[in-house]
Amino acid sequence: MNWLDVLSGAVEQALGPQAMIYCLAAIGLNIHFGYTGLLNFGQAAFMMVGGYAVGALVQTWEQNLWLSILVGLLAAVLLALVLGVPTLRLRADYLAIATIAAAEAVRQVLGAASLNDQFGGQDGRFGFADDMKSLNPIEPGGVHFGPIDFRSYDFFIMIVGWSLALLLCGVIFLMMRSPWGRVLKGIREDEDAVRSLGKNVYFYKMQSLILGGVIGAAAGIMSGLATDNVAPSDFATDTTFFVYTVLLIGGAARVFGPVAGAVIFWFFLNGLDLFFDKATHDNLIPDWIMTSDQASLMRLIVLGLVLMLLMIYRPQGIFGDRRELAIDGR
Amino acid sequence: MRLRLAALLPLLFLLTVVGTTAPAHAANDTIDVVGTLLDNRDTPPKPVPGVKISVEESGAQIAEGVSDAEGKFSIALPGAPIDLLGKKITVKIDTDTLPEGTSLTDEKKTEYSVTIRTDGDIPIGYRIGPKADDSDELVRKVSQSAINGVFLGLLLALGALGLSLVFGTTGLTNFAHGELITFGAIVGFLLQDKLDSPFLLAALAGVVLSGVFGYANDVFLWKPLRRRGTGLLAMMIVSIGLAIFLRNVYQYIVGADSHQFTGVPLRREPWEIGSIDISPRTFWSAVICAIILVIISIAVQRTRLGKATRAVSDNPALAASSGIDVDRVILTVWIVGGALAGTSGILWGINYGFDYQFGFKILLLVFAGVTLGGLGTIWGTMAGSLIVGLMVEMSSLILPPELKYVTALVVLILVLLIRPQGILGRAQRIG
Q: What stretches of B255-303 show up as alpha helix (H) in DSSP?
């Protein structure tokens, strides 16, 4: 087995477009869950609405890409309003069920065969990122750092996406230090106390849902641009669960938690994948224990275990502060 | 690659006359429109030869073909597959060429529009039979959906009771409950498939092992977590981790394919009662569900343990102080809930088939039923699940069938908006 291949492959994923997309989605979720204590299990829906607005507007209705991106972000505001009005008054566990159901409903509608002409059914939309590709200044040969390779367009997307992520981290750092941010944290800690101070809790929660949702939509848009494709399978319930894992690894309610979480998550996810893939191909693990099909599942089996153990033994994540985490039975 | 005819697939599934659902890959140099015309009034269905079928592109005919002695037709489209990609074609049947006395069941369905996305053959299905009387057809469809809905509702109720009782007694929203349902189907299937045991034995063992699995869930995971004082929301996320873990272990064991039980001593060939079809298998499965639900209801109402369960559901602290062993009640709830979920999984498996993630797929329906009825209430869970089952099946009378689950999800959200405690739940603060 070539350990260097495993390592460099893992590093490529840890910095690559996927990690950047999950980082953005987790930054949005951090505002919901980390700072406001909203258990939003519908983050995938925000991503999907953003990605699909861009994909469908450009491919189906032949609109300008940049205008479509703006519409995608606005669509997330709309979704936050539609989702928030009925659900934000609910207790945390009910909110989780309602948002997960809403996200799945959105996904099934957008992926429905009867809307094939608009949204392309299970194939989704593709071939809409040409305007983005034409902006790519990186030389076509791609970029190489020793054994680590990135394709030209991927590298461009990474630069754009990670810059956006860092910018958002800065903005969130400032926002959470502001009085507005303190109210959000107050809601997380004790909703009734904030209410008794005369703040409109519902209103603040809605602002939090909108802000995080728009950042989620940005993640969906970046996902669409990176692969030049949006499909219903990209935005399944598991996507939301993975975003949670990213956030919880890095540490909720920490500005750089999502960044660290995304890098670590994808480093290990892809590292494990490559390791088991090579181990089965080189017959380090005999076939009767694990075939190469089964090897591709090991990373998710480990992921499930890690999520459980993390939540049990270190709910604050790697960089989090236990006092900051409002995971209790409210 | 197979053409994704998501729009046609449900149709192909429902229609008694179907085009080949898995088209042959042989001819890679042309794309063919293929199908078989069968007259389903006869048993076995009689082929319908000599029917002209034409293919049009933007109004102009580009190819045509005639069904052969076996009722099959295969029409090669002109041009290389690569040029055909992305083109939209319309397949039409010439109803004048149908033999005397035959007609399409649905006279309006003479043409299908298809966009070519892959180079696979394009399957097309037409239903041939007696002309349907519109009002009769509506009654038939409504009653058929109602029957399907009641059955789905019973299965969901069986699967949901464990979730609801666990929530009632411990407050845990268990996202890994879908995997308890899958567990029953997988264990039953493995016992039968690998150990060659007879179906009934495998099914019974599957139910018992599901109960053991529920027991293991509580003893090895949830009870220690309760002891540590882990918060409910943290436990909920733990259950998500458990769900991801179990689902992938299941796929590790049985693969990604869908499986069918073999050797089930209940026939699939439907009885025809009036114009409604119901298979003996579905019927007896529904009877089993109903019997179990009645037994559980009586047990909860009459037995000491049942009363203790309701007491713990109501107020754990008060129940403990009046001498009820809360941990024992919770453990019983896990065992019974696990066994019920497993039973539901096996019955689901023998009727619809199963794969490693079907429990996860129906989990949201289960949640919908439980929430509609009122989380933690037993009667509410049963009533809510039945309503959800009916609604899911009935909605496909109006909506495209692929959207039938969406109805349940929308209702779930509406219930939370209007009456969050559910139809039978006690009003309490949940917001």
A: 280-302
| Radius of gyration of chain B measured on its C-alpha atoms | 26
Among A residues 53-92, those touching chain B with beta carbons less than 8 Å apart: 86-87, 89-92
Q: Are B126 and B202 in the same domain?
A: no
Domain-ending residue, one of B132, B151, B182: B132
- The Cα B382–Cα B294 span in angstroms is 10
Structural domain count, chain B: 2
| B282 and B140 within one domain | yes
Domains, chain A: 3-324 (1.10.3470)
Q: Do A327 and B171 touch (CB under 8 A)?
A: no
Same domain? For B256 and B395 the reply is yes
Residue B118 makes CB contacts below 8 A (sequence gap 6+) with B1, B2, B3, B4, B85
B126: closest CA among B263, B247, B16? B16
| Domain annotation covers residue B364 | yes
CA dist B391 and B389 (Å) reads 5
B338 and B368 in a common domain:
yes
Mutation pick from B167, B179, B235, B413 vs chain A, by most beta carbons of A within 10 Å, is B413
Establish if B183 belongs to a structural domain. Answer: yes
B352 close to B13: Cβ distance less than 8 angstroms: no
Do B245 and A248 lie within an 8 Å CB cutoff? no
Instruction: Please give the structure tokens belonging to residue B173.
Output: 């929203």
Q: Are B329 and B265 in the same domain?
A: yes
pTM of the prediction?
0.81
Give the span between the Cα atoms of B2 and B23, in whole angstroms: 7
- What DSSP string describes A248-268? HHH-TT-TTHHHHHHHHHHHH
Between positions 247 and 306 of B, the ones with CB within 8 A of A are 247-249, 251-252, 255
At residue A182, the 3 state secondary structure works out as: helix
Give the range of the structural domain holding residue B142, as residue numbers without chain letter: 136-418
Query: Which phi and psi (to 5°) does residue A63 adopt?
Result: -95, 170
| Shared domain check, B6 and B146 | no
B87 within a domain of the structure (yes/no): no
- Cβ distance of A116 and B115 shorter than 8 Å: yes
User: Could you give the count of Cα atoms lying within 13 Å of A230 in the half-sphere of its Cβ?
Assistant: 35
pLDDT by residue for chain B (431 residues), tens only, comes to 444 444 444 433 333 333 334 444 444 567 888 888 877 676 667 788 888 888 888 778 888 888 888 888 888 888 777 777 777 788 888 877 877 767 776 666 777 777 777 777 777 777 776 655 567 778 888 888 999 999 999 999 999 999 999 998 998 999 999 999 999 999 999 998 888 888 899 999 999 999 999 999 999 999 999 998 888 888 999 999 999 999 999 999 999 999 988 878 877 777 877 777 888 899 999 999 999 999 999 998 899 999 999 899 888 889 999 999 999 999 999 999 999 999 999 999 999 999 999 999 999 999 999 888 887 788 889 999 999 999 999 998 888 888 888 988 888 888 877 877 777 666 554 44
Q: Do B231 and A327 touch (CB under 8 A)?
A: yes
Helix residue ranges, H only, chain A: 3-15, 17-29, 43-59, 65-87, 92-110, 116-119, 130-133, 152-177, 179-189, 191-196, 201-227, 237-250, 257-281, 292-313
Chain B partners within 8 Å of A297 (Cβ): 248, 251-252
Let me know whether B334 and B244 are in one domain.
Answer: yes
Question: Residue B353 contacts by C-beta under 8 Å, 6 or more apart in sequence?
Answer: B258, B259, B260
A130-189 residues touching B, CB cutoff 8 A: none
**Domain-embedded: residue B20:** yes
Please give the Cα distance from B235 to B171 (Å, whole number): 10
Query: Based on the domain organization, do B286 and B386 belong to the same domain?
Result: yes
User: B212 near B347, Cβ under 8 Å?
Assistant: no
CATH number for position B254: 1.10.3470
